[in-house]
Specification:
This protein has 131 residues and is mainly alpha-helical. The protein has 7 helices and 2 strands; from the N terminus they run ββααααααα.
Length: 131
């Protein structure tokens, strides 16, 4: 299992797909890096030589990845919250930010449903059956 930019990439997969396990590397960037490093796209990550791994690492250093990228994104969100803009208020409330509907759906952002209503105890159930 090769280690690139402090991340263990899966060795059984092709290099192009393994690079996507690095935060900030998607399909287009992974394909471009494999092409620029002159690596066979069909090659598995375990079969990479040390020279090829260093070539990939040097190409990746040109981009903001992993911890730096996460920090930058969190900083952007904190800035939106601090200036109290609409998007910041949506982040603060834990609701969808990009205009999606919330009356139904949006369960990923809102979390599991919280049922609203009266919870009946044992004595209330007995009275309800009599009526």
């Amino acid at each position: 299992m090769p280690r690139v930019m402090g991340v263990d990439i899966p060795g059984k997969k092709r290099v192009e797909y393994s690079l996507r396990y690095i935060h900030g590397v998607g399909p287009a960037r992974a394909a471009a890096i494999v092409e620029q490093a002159h690596i066979d796209p069909l090659k598995k990550a375990d079969d990479l030589t040390d020279d090829e791994v260093t070539r990939i690492a040097t190409l990746l250093q040109a981009y903001t990845l992993e911890g730096d990228l996460r920090r930058e994104v969190q900083g952007n969100i904190r800035r939106l919250i601090s200036i109290s803009c609409y998007r910041g208020s949506r982040h603060r409330k834990g609701l969808p930010v990009r205009g999606q509907r919330t009356s139904t759906n949006a369960r990923t952002r809102k979390g599991p449903r919280k049922t609203v209503g009266t919870v009946r105890g044992k004595e209330n159930r007995a009275e309800a059956k009599k009526a």
